[in-house]
Design goal:
The complex is a heterodimer of chains A (372) and B (247).
Chain A lengths: L17 H8 L18 E6 L2 E2 L9 E6 L12 E8 L8 E20 L4 E22 L4 E8 L5 E10 L4 E8 L4 E10 L5 E10 L4 E10 L5 E10 L4 E10 L7 E10 L5 E10 L5 E9 L3 H9 L4 H14 L8 H19 L16
Parallel strand pairs in A: 1-5, 4-5, 5-6, 6-7, 6-8, 7-9, 8-10, 9-11, 10-12, 11-13, 12-14, 13-15, 14-16, 15-17
Antiparallel strand pairs in A: 1-2, 3-4
Chain B lengths: L1 E10 L2 E11 L4 E5 L6 H9 L4 E10 L2 E2 L5 H7 L1 E4 L6 E5 H15 L7 H14 L4 H5 L1 E2 L5 H15 L3 E5 L7 H15 L5 E5 L4 H5 L4 E6 L2 E6 L1 H10 L1 H5 L1
Helix pairs in contact in B: 2-3, 4-6, 6-7
The chains are: A mainly beta (372), B alpha/beta (247).
GO molecular function (chain B): ATP binding; ATP hydrolysis activity
Protein name (chain B): Fe-S cluster assembly ATP-binding protein
Keywords (chain B): ATP-binding, Nucleotide-binding
Chain lengths: 372, 247
C-alpha cells in the first residue's frame, strides 16, 4: 500500500511519525474489541468498527450517514467517502452524541461534519479504542450563537490515531474541544480553527500522556479573523520512559481582528529524563489592539512537593501520581459535563497507574489508603 | 524515644552536621536553638529523610528502630512528623485530599484500616476548629495562596490529624503574629504534650518557648550541640546572643 505520507523534513511534520502511521496501517485486522466504551449518559450513540457503522449497536437520532468531503489536508483528504453528519437546525438542541471508534487493524478512514445553525447546540463525545490506523477528519461549522462541546478520548492500545479538525466559528458562537491522548497508540492531531465571526469563542486543548517509546503530537492553529474573539489553548503533556509528546500551537490574529483575547498555555512534564516534550508556541499578530497571554514550560515534578508529601506518609510513587494528576487536571477544567470530566480524569488516572505503578484513589470518593 | 549519636551529614559534599548527639525521651520537649547556618534545618531534613542529605556516619534510632534505614513515608508512618519552615504549595491537590491520602497511607503502612471519607472529614474539621482555621481552607489546594501564618497553622492542623509520636518543628514560629503564635503554641501543647510523645522544637527565638515550655534547651553551632541546659538557657541566649555561648 502506498501511503504517500508527509516527510518529517516539512516543518509542520518535524515531530511527526509517518513511519508509525505506515506501521499501524500494516497491522492485520482482527476481531472487534468488546467493551463498554459508552459513558453512562442519555443520547444518541454510534459505533464504528474500522470506520463502518455498526447499526446494531447504534442509535443515530440526529446523526446521519452521508457522503462527505475530507478537505484538502494531507491526511484529511484521505477520508473522503461515507461518514457521519450532524446537522442541527437553528435554535435547536441536539441530544448528546457518543461515538465509539473501534479499530481492529489495518487502516480505516472516516470523515465527519458538524453543522450547527444559528443558536443551535450540540455536544459530542468520541472514544477511540483498538489498534491499526484510524484516520479521521471532522469539519465543523458553527452559525451565529451556536454552541458545540466536543470531548475526544484517544484510548487505542496500539497503532495510530490521526485527527484532522477544521472549524469555522461564527459570530457569538462557542466551540470547546478537549482531547485526551491516554492510550498507547501514536497520535497526530491537526487542528485549524478559524474564529470568523465577531464576539466568538474557541477553546481547543487537552492532554497528551505518553510512555514507553510512544509519540503523540498536536499541531494546532487558531486564526482570529473577526472582532472581539476569544480563544484558549490549554495543553498539558506528560512524557514517561523514552516517549515523546509534542505540541505546536499557533495563534494568528488578522489585521482586522481587534480586541482579540487569546490565551495559550503549553506545559510539559517529564517523568523521566529520557523522555522528551517538544513545545512550539507561535503567535502571529497583525492587529494592534489585542491581548495574547502565552506561556510554555517543560519541567519535572517539584522535588520539594514530593518530599513534603512523603514526609506526611505518602509513598513516593503515589506522591508522583497525585502531583501528575493535578498537573493534567488543568486541561480538563473546561469540560462542563461532570460525567465526561470524570471519565477523562479516570482515563488519565488509569494511565498514571500504569506509567507510575501507583494506585490512585477515586477523586473525592471513598477508599484510598493503598500503598505501592 | 529518639537517640542521635555522633551524626555526620553532608549536602553536595559539604559537611553540615559534624558529630551531633542528642537523646529525647518520651514526655520531653527539646528546643534546638542556634545561629544561622548552624545546621538546624539540616537536622530536621536528615531526620525526615529528605533526598540529597547524606548521612556519612553516626546513627539515629527511633523507638529502637534504625530511622535512617526507613524511607521518608515510612518514618511518617512510624510516628515522626516534620513541620516545615517553609511549607510547600501544591497546586491542584486539595488539603483534604492530601491529608486523607497522607493519613490513610500511614495507616496502610502500619496495617491499619483506612478511614472512610466521613470519618476523615469529622477528624479534619475538629482539628481545623481547634486551630482556628476556616474549614473552607481545607478544601483549597495545599498552602496555595495561604499567608505565612496560615501555612504554619496548616502544619499544625496536619500534625493534629496524623497525631504523631515525635514532632520535629522547624521554625514553626517564623512568620507568625502574636495571636497566631499563641494559637500554634497551644496547638503544639495540645497535640504533643503527652507522656508518650516528644518534640524537637527548632527555633531562633525565645518567644515560642514562652508558650511551649521546653524541658531542655540545646545550642547547635557548627553542626554540633555545643551546650545544653534547661529553659533558662533560652533566656540567657535571648539576652546575651549566641556569640559568647556558642564559642
Amino acid at each position: 500500500m502506498l501511503l504517500d505520507l508527509p516527510s518529517t523534513r516539512e516543518e509542520s511534520w518535524r515531530w511527526g511519525d509517518p513511519a508509525a502511521i505506515a506501521a499501524a496501517a500494516g497491522l492485520p485486522r482482527g476481531e472487534a474489541l468488546a467493551g463498554a466504551w459508552f459513558l453512562d449518559l442519555e443520547g444518541a450513540r454510534a459505533v464504528f468498527v474500522d470506520g463502518v457503522l455498526d447499526e446494531g449497536r447504534s442509535d443515530l437520532r440526529h446523526v446521519a450517514i452521508a457522503p462527505l468531503e475530507g478537505g484538502e489536508h494531507v491526511l484529511g483528504r484521505r477520508t473522503t467517502g461515507n461518514g457521519w453528519s450532524l446537522r442541527v437546525d437553528a435554535n435547536a438542541s441536539a441530544e448528546l452524541i457518543q461515538i465509539v471508534h473501534i479499530s481492529t487493524g489495518g487502516d480505516n478512514q472516516l470523515p465527519a461534519e458538524i453543522v450547527l445553525a444559528g443558536g443551535a447546540q450540540a455536544s459530542v463525545v468520541e472514544t477511540y479504542v483498538g489498534t491499526g490506523w484510524s484516520n479521521r477528519s471532522t469539519r465543523i461549522t458553527l452559525g451565529a450563537g451556536a454552541k458545540l462541546t466536543r470531548a475526544v478520548r484517544l484510548l487505542q492500545a496500539s497503532g495510530f490515531v490521526s485527527l484532522r479538525d477544521e472549524a469555522e466559528v461564527g459570530a457569538g458562537a462557542s466551540l470547546i474541544v478537549t482531547v485526551l491522548g491516554a492510550g498507547d497508540a501514536g497520535t497526530r492531531i491537526d487542528g485549524a480553527i478559524t474564529v470568523s465571526g465577531d464576539d466568538a469563542f474557541a477553546e481547543y486543548g487537552g492532554a497528551l500522556l505518553t510512555r514507553n517509546a510512544q509519540k503523540q503530537e498536536c499541531a494546532l492553529s487558531v486564526r482570529h479573523a473577526a472582532l472581539n474573539g476569544q480563544s484558549k489553548q490549554i495543553w498539558r503533556a506528560v512524557a514517561a520512559d523514552t516517549s515523546t509528546a509534542s505540541l505546536a500551537a499557533r495563534v494568528e490574529v488578522a489585521r482586522d481582528a481587534q480586541k482579540t483575547d487569546g490565551v495559550q498555555s503549553l506545559r510539559g512534564l517529564l517523568l523521566k529524563r529520557t523522555a522528551t516534550v517538544n513545545l512550539k508556541p507561535e503567535l502571529e499578530i497583525f492587529a494592534d489592539d489585542v491581548k495574547c497571554a502565552h506561556g510554555a514550560t517543560v519541567g519535572e515534578l517539584d522535588q520539594r512537593a514530593l518530599f513534603y508529601m512523603q514526609s506526611r506518609g505518602i509513598p513516593h510513587a503515589k506522591a508522583q501520581a497525585l502531583l501528575t494528576r493535578a498537573f493534567v487536571g488543568d486541561a480538563f477544567a473546561q469540560i462542563a459535563d461532570e460525567t465526561v470530566r470524570d471519565a477523562f480524569v479516570a482515563d488519565a488516572d488509569a494511565w498514571l497507574e500504569a506509567a507510575l505503578s501507583a494506585p490512585l484513589p477515586l477523586a473525592g470518593g471513598a477508599g484510598g489508603g493503598a500503598s505501592s | 524515644m529518639l537517640k542521635i549519636e555522633n551524626l555526620h551529614a553532608e549536602i553536595d559534599g559539604k559537611e553540615i552536621l559534624k558529630g551531633l548527639s542528642l537523646t529525647a525521651n518520651a514526655g520531653e520537649v527539646h528546643a534546638i536553638m542556634g545561629p544561622n547556618g548552624a545546621g538546624k534545618s539540616t537536622l530536621g531534613y536528615v531526620l525526615g529523610g529528605r533526598p540529597g542529605y547524606e548521612v556519612t556516619s553516626g546513627s539515629v534510632t527511633f523507638d529502637g528502630v534504625d530511622l535512617l534505614e526507613l524511607e521518608a513515608h515510612e518514618r511518617a508512618a512510624a510516628g515522626v512528623f516534620l513541620g516545615f519552615q517553609y511549607p510547600v504549595e501544591i497546586p491542584g491537590v486539595s488539603n483534604v485530599q492530601f491529608l486523607r491520602e497522607a493519613l490513610n497511607a500511614q495507616r496502610a503502612t502500619r496495617d491499619e484500616k483506612a478511614l472512610s471519607g466521613g470519618e476523615f472529614l469529622k477528624l479534619a474539621r475538629a482539628q481545623a476548629d481547634l486551630l482556628g482555621m476556616d474549614y473552607d481552607m481545607l478544601k483549597r489546594p495545599v498552602n496555595v495562596g495561604f499567608s505565612g501564618g496560615e501555612k504554619k497553622r496548616n502544619e499544625m492542623v496536619q500534625m493534629g490529624i496524623v497525631n504523631p509520636k515525635f514532632a520535629i518543628l522547624d521554625e514553626t514560629d517564623s512568620g507568625l503574629d502574636i495571636d497566631a503564635l499563641r494559637v500554634v503554641g497551644d496547638g503544639i501543647n495540645r497535640i504533643m504534650r503527652a507522656p508518650d510523645k516528644a518534640v524537637l522544637l527548632i527555633t531562633h527565638y525565645q518567644r515560642l518557648l514562652d508558650y511551649v515550655e521546653p524541658d531542655f534547651v540545646h545550642v547547635l553551632a557548627d553542626g554540633r550541640i555545643v551546650r545544653s541546659g534547661g529553659k533558662e538557657l533560652a533566656q540567657q541566649l535571648e539576652s546575651e546572643g549566641y556569640v559568647g555561648i556558642a564559642a
